[in-house]
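Box S2. Input/output pair 1.
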Amino acid sequence: MSEAEPMSGGCACGAVRFEAKVDSDEAYLCHCRMCQRATGSVSIAFKNIPQAKVRWLSGPDWYDSSPIARRPYCSACGTSFGFQFLEGTNLDLTVASFDDPSHFRPTSHFGAESLHEAWIDTSGLRRTRTDEQPKLVDKWIAATGSLPG
């Protein structure tokens, strides 16, 4: 990844958008209970970025998730955008909220005391593509006029 490459992202409904100057492809998985509860997932992929390199084009809402941190989210669709210490200069943005999350690679785990090992290596599980589900595809096309993307 080139030095401070601009990348964009946003929520599911499009109400919140951001741009971030990203200087590496390194990201991490957080497994702490606070993140599990905040996202409803067993882990969350984050990219740590200096706040000064993040620009909200249409701002998120924020909530204090603990006495030491707050989290940005979209109040319209519920998308979680990350984590920020109340006293700090960095922001952890959710990898999946970037328009192209494939630019990132996991390099470490955090909150390993709450890590659910069975959810880490899922390479042996059956895989089904969305487009292999005709009923779902038909419903999507009927609702939107195009294939799910």
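Box S3. Input/output pair 2.
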Amino acid sequence: MNLWQRLKKPTFVAAWCCAATSSLFAAPFSNLSFEAASKQAAQTGKIVLVDFYTTWCGPCKLLDKNTWTDAAVIRLLEEKTVALRIDAEKESALSKHYKIEAYPSVLLIKPDGTEIDRLVGYMGPKAFIEDFNAALGGKDSIGRAKDKMMAAGTNDPSARMQFGVALAQKGKNAEALTEYLWCFDHGLEASPAFAGVRLSFLLMNIKNLAVHYPPAQQSLETRRDERKAKVAAGSTDSHTIQELVSLNKALGEEEKNLAVFDQLPAGSKTRDIISRLLTDQFLKARRYADVLQGTDGKSAFNKAVERFNMTLDSMGKDTPTRKQVEESFRRFTITAGTHYFEALAGLKRNQDGKDLAGQILKFDSSQGTRTLLAEAAQRAENAELAQYVRR
């Protein structure tokens, strides 16, 4: 039985909502149903290409803008495919059948419905053409990712993580988890620069895998519990503490970070270190005193400004990246000040709040900063301070 016979409903490509939308695409996307596109592909010796997208997907929009409008890509699709664009949220039967979980997902499919390969995420024209041709030549996404990993070296955590992603996309969950866990357990040994990716994208990949593969969830819990025991015993290793906080976040159990904090002795170095990582959680829980840690917020903000100035002074005025660094550190400094301001607002320490707001606005008097302060005061339900910073 062919694929379209197994589906309960024929799947149709969503009609363009307006002429402006349809004019965006020079690429030969068809309005055929999936059934009709498969029949046409069989008759013409082509494959079916399906771009599964959603209306809210940023990378999908980049694919639309940069890749599907490229002349070389258009020629390739005309020669080799019957191409469809399908809104995965509207055409759920087909997207469920092919287990579409990330967007954009571009599937290359034989006329009989057999998947050849899938290209997941944004790709520029050159990368798309290379991967498309490799897939039709028999080298699927796993093979391509493995080649890249071998070229980079098996100790390269970024390459191994991408190999894990390719495995996960093909449903090879156990193999994917093995790669992910190597990256988490040994990635820093091979590449200290992997630290940020390790506690963000890598943990997100493991969390996504856990939705369908329980051992991934168990692996996160095991590593979390190991670090929790060390922190509870008084470890002052900042990496261990950061990992505990990040693992609880990945598990959706951030409240356990607060429980660990509450169990630590007052004044201990471990408690001091973890408190710096829990500001957002303290504010969300309205634990304003824990944000301030016995200060009025002004001295802490002044230290942040000093670090900002020292960073810029160390770079020199002619450093190419100075502007980007300045903008980034400025946002960071303003955010830190806003956190202290929100805590003062929540404690109704209005005069201290006004004094701090004055310091923050002296550092950056833009309307955006005033808006951030006003929103912070509103979250803390302090109308007086909200009105004060709007002046």
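Caption for Box S3: The radius of gyration is 26 Å. Strands lie at 47-53, 81-87, 105-109, 115-120.
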